[in-house]
Amino acid sequence: MKSEATKMMLKTLLPVAIGLAVTAWLFHDDFNPENFKDFEWTGRMVAGFALAWIFMFGRDFGLAWRFHTIARPTLSWPRAFRVNYMCAFTSAVTPSAVGGSAFAIFYLNREGVKLGRATTLTLTTLFLDEMFFVVFCPILIFAIPFDELFANGADASFMNGLELVFWLVYAGIVCWAAILFMGIIVKPHAVARAIKRLFMWRYLKKWRRSAFETANNMVSASSELRSCSRRWWLNVFGATVVSWFSRYLVVNALFWGFAPGASQFLIFGRQFVVWVVLMVSPTPGGSGISEWLFTTYYGDMLSSASTALVVALSWRIISYYIYLIIGTFLIPGYFSKRKTTSQ
What we know:
Layout: H1 2-11, H2 13-26, H3 43-70, H4 77-93, H5 104-110, H6 115-143, H7 146-149, H8 156-186, H9 188-198, H10 208-225, H11 230-258, H12 264-277, H13 289-297, H14 305-336
Helix pairs in contact: 1-14, 2-13, 3-4, 3-11, 3-14, 4-14, 5-6, 6-8, 6-10, 6-11, 8-9, 8-10, 8-12, 9-10, 11-12, 11-14, 13-14
């Protein structure tokens, strides 16, 4: 287990190196200390930076609340926070397309949740996240004009490409959410049979085992989730909304401190686009791509390159690098401690 912990700790170096390298490349002309002569931290900036940390804790609280609720009574609050931080760390060191949710089964099981139930709970959290985007995307799209959401004076090809990727990823989210809804709520056995039949096709043989496991997990999850009350569903979906909204509001807090004249609603809407696009990032935790996307997409809202650099780095420190640090401290003890007895 110690070797596994060492490997995970070494993996933290790659995303950090990528993120810092891309940031340096984006601002290589602005790293000159002379460019920061006129930059001074004001009380408002400090307050915005502090508020951003509070919102980031709101993100952690929302996810821990969700883990605590769905795994009750097995998962206490401290264990729920630990699972959340381990999932966040895993997301930071793996490609965004993989994410920390794929490892949640392992972390829940080590905290005492039986393996079968841990699989059910992980599928539930995945469904809740997908439903968040399905529900709130149409609201934001109708509330914010397209010429503000997907046009900021930057290169037209960049904005066209961003819009295309956003809609393609969102379409995939809707399809996956529909499959999960039918598979764990409406027709679990029918969906499971359809998935197995599809992956019998020889061209999909590579993913057959994983697809079969997913199909069987849907059926297992259905029997538990279909008996949950409406209040339970409102509770866990409310926790999901708190976690995602808090994640977005980190950037709102930073802009409130560093660029108070910017539209807070537009900043929030663009965060929605950023996180949807980052779902298909091939780099660990979206490192490199996140910095480039943030500075390009929000460039029209910041007064200078030096301000853009400080805001971009602040955003990544609060929403990304902090989880690398927390995970690095948790890993040695996490892999060395004995597994909690399943309940």
